[in-house]
């Protein structure tokens, strides 16, 4: 055998790594990971009340709008996943497309956003469980000023603890539970659509009536529509999870791209139909409960279907929240693992440690779980905890996506992407549509990021006390994370960057392969390194 030949049958040596994770995920499980992260039954039911309270029934138009924009991003990601189905998704993609700082920042932002999103998703249990059974309201009776928020934190903490145990036990258990949950979620979504469609009481003209929303706003209805659109923007993301689990997926270069596109498309169709028929079937759209956090779409379902049927669908929503929590947790773990094995995080050796029996990053699973609970405890007395947490975490996600789509577009203009034919077939390619789709993905990502971070009082300071620093809290927090993260990398982390010995592919150390002899520089894309992007094994 020639020295430069692969000795890792899993194909991970192509990226400079040895296979340490359990490659056991099939096609449906890969698709299920993306679907469960997006989780329409979680997101749509969690945030319907917010979108409706801002812009009324016409807010539903934001759903196809967000889908169109996110589909452009998903197509770019599918092309990357067909080439680099590696843990850490955007981090490892940016590593091949851009500088070390850009790659690290993309991973840093998505890692923090995933940890925060984990808490925000788990909080969705508060919107459903107490409506399913009053006994789930552990704190007070639900009427106190902090009963709702504090009970949400209790339920979320219990859920995150369970998710930590499942994810730490192994990817087989996680994906098995996730796949079953997604199957239940998909079936429930279809049945719910049929049930709501059967009970339609009004025509589609309601979607063309602003119903007085926007009066008094400087931009009229468009102003409140932009706010309400966040309810859709908060849902349709995380499709990159299918690729982040690529190291644990069979035939990932073909499976991951398809899973990404199928997940975002299926979520759009089912979520859109639930929104459509939910609004058309609501007994009374002027009912204050429709636009309140303790009512929303759950209230519509209970009102329309009533009794045991309504409760059964709420139970399915709980299942969806559980599997969504598992998927978000799993994605956060893979990001921590991916960055840690490149020695790009504090305590990297511990965070990248893989259990020899379960073949899963157990330490990373526990650390992510603990960190996800911290912001919940800090904000335990904040009634607006749901929208604040969601807003900040989603801004970071859209920014991290931009740190991939922008360098990708630049590489297209420089004729550096798609890569020249090297003997291996990519799993997915957009061909001549690559440039226009990539341009739209960048424009969409920039516009959505601006809309999300806009310091509106309705988002960042919706309840007293009304202080300027609370309204601008999102902007200041995101700026602190970006600037602080950049300084951390530039001043410290970049000087230690390099694949840890226990994770480096054996072929990378061979002199004739060229790998393991270069340190990543910050003024050139890291795909310039040997072994198709492998980082150095020795710190600078």
Give a short synopsis of this structure.
With 540 residues, the protein is mainly alpha-helical.
Tell me what you see in this structure.
The structure is a single chain. The chain is an all-alpha fold. It has a domain at 20-391: Amino acid/polyamine transporter I. The protein has 22 helices and no strands. Helix 3 (62-81) runs antiparallel to helix 12 (252-281), helix 6 (125-132) runs antiparallel to helix 14 (307-341) and helix 8 packs antiparallel against helix 14. The longest helix is centred in the middle third of the chain and has 35 residues, at 307-341. It is globular, with a radius of gyration of 23 Å. Mean pLDDT is 86; it is low at 1-9, 508-521 and 526-540.
- Which sequence of SSEs, written as H and E, runs from N to C? HHHHHHHHHHHHHHHHHHHHHH
Oligomeric nature of the chains: single chain
Count of DSSP E strands? 0
Identify the CATH class of the domain at 20-391. Answer: Mainly Alpha
The CATH topology name of the domain at 20-391 reads Amino acid/polyamine transporter I
Mind telling me which CATH architecture of the domain at 20-391 this is?
Up-down Bundle
Q: Fraction of residues in helices?
A: 55-70%
Distance between the termini: 32 Å
Question: Count of DSSP helices?
Answer: 22
The biggest sheet, with number of strands, parallel, antiparallel or mixed sense and barrel status, is: none
Rounded mean pLDDT is 86
- Which descriptor suits the 3D outline? globular
CATH superfamily of the domain at 20-391: Amino acid/polyamine transporter I
Poorly predicted parts: 1-9, 508-521, 526-540
What radius of gyration results from the CA coordinates? 23 Å
Q: Supply the helix-strand structural class.
A: mainly alpha
Beta-strand residue fraction? under 5%
